[in-house]
Write a structure and sequence with these properties.
By secondary structure, the chain is of the alpha+beta class. The protein has three domains: 90 residues, Uridine Diphospho-n-acetylenolpyruvylglucosamine Reductase, domain 2 (2-Layer Sandwich); 130 residues, 2-Layer Sandwich (Uridine Diphospho-n-acetylenolpyruvylglucosamine Reductase, domain 3), CATH 3.30.465; 65 residues, Alpha-Beta Complex (Uridine Diphospho-n-acetylenolpyruvylglucosamine Reductase, domain 1). It has eight helices and 18 strands. A five-stranded antiparallel β-sheet has the order 6-7-13-11-12, with helices on one face. It has a four-stranded mixed β-sheet with strand order 1-2-5-3, covered by helices on one side. Helix 3 packs antiparallel against helix 6. The radius of gyration is 20 Å and the shape is globular. The mean pLDDT is 95.
Length: 311
């Protein structure tokens, strides 16, 4: 297997400059949890052509692979990832205002939510304030229909440029055809790759937008454990309730295994309080799920994506 991976990596180096093909790269460097063993290769692609070529290599050879965003919603195994992890950069890390429609922007999948918010605020475009403090990239946000404070990505996205998992069939999909629902889109079901998104905003004074962003940022910082590494909300909101409330009602605030802890500030977050391993986090998550189910009959489903590991 290792020899086969080595051959595949060499072939990838024919499509992408070698300095953007990192071998045995610790994923703790690329996740907001600061957790994860080495990927066999971590590849940064800077345009659609490179992505097409790399995907042709890995899919044609049957090599295990995955596209990741900013790593803000990932928990990677301590053993790492045996295949190829592909991250978008370069041309995917861009935002452009439409010359014909000043309220519309095209945002590359690698653009961070925070930088997108800053650009829109400076240009007097409102409607994205809810997302200003969400960690991660536009691609990941579209993939899971990220949301906060009553807003969701589906509220502003009009079209999405996508590609099939094998690097073929480049096309533009309407927001409606993305079938957005709570923390979900058709991309999750079909493995469609998000390359960019067009968003429709509304004009407003930059000062007014900045004030709303600052207010939401204050709320987030005052209620969430932003000073500790985490992957955001650990569990999805269950029907008819809130994960954080159920966890708190079960007396699990502060529950700790190794370096992983249910945050004492916000029980919806499992945080890395110091050198946590993937197994530490999984142990906390398992205990939380079992206890909440025992107390309420509700099964919490993970919102964090588990890579090469499971509950």
């Amino acid at each position: 297997m290792q020899n086969n991976i080595s051959i595949i990596i060499e072939r990838i180096c024919g499509a992408v400059p070698e300095d953007r093909v990192l071998r045995n790269e610790p994923m703790s460097r690329h996740t907001s949890f600061r957790i994860g063993g080495p990927a066999a290769a971590f590849v940064i692609v800077n345009n659609e052509e490179e992505l097409e070529e790399v995907l042709a290599v890995v899919t044609g050879s049957g090599t295990e692979h995955m596209i990741i965003g900013n790593g803000s919603n990932l928990l990677v195994s301590d053993a790492g990832y045996p295949g190829i992890l592909i991250k978008l950069g370069g041309a995917f890390d861009s935002i452009v205002r439409d010359e014909n429609n000043p309220c519309r922007v095209k945002v590359g999948a690698a653009m961070l939510m925070s930088r997108t918010s800053a650009f829109l605020t400076e240009n007097g475009l409102s409607g994205f304030e809810f997302a200003s403090g969400i960690p991660g990239s536009i691609g990941g946000a579209v993939f899971m229909n990220a949301g906060a404070y009553g807003g969701e990505i589906k509220d502003v996205v009009t079209t999405v440029r996508v590609m099939d998992p094998d690097g073929t069939n480049l096309r533009t999909v309407s927001g409606e055809d993305m079938q957005f629902s709570y923390r979900h889109s058709i991309a999750e079901d079909e493995g469609i790759l998000i390359l960019s998104a067009e968003m429709e905003l509304k004009e407003d004074a930059p000062e007014a937008i900045a004030a709303r962003v600052a207010e939401l940022q204050y709320k987030r910082n005052s209620k969430q454990p932003v000073n500790y590494p985490s992957a955001g909300s650990t569990f999805k909101r269950p029907a008819g309730g809130y994960a954080a409330a159920l966890i708190e009602q079960s007396g699990l605030k502060g529950y700790t295994v190794g370096g992983a802890q249910v945050s004492e500030k916000h029980s919806g977050f499992v945080i890395n309080i110091g050198n946590a391993t993937c197994e530490d986090v999984l142990a906390v998550m398992r205990h939380v799920r079992e206890t909440v189910f025992s107390d309420s009959g509700i099964t919490l489903e993970p919102e964090v994506r588990l890579i090469n590991c499971s509950l």
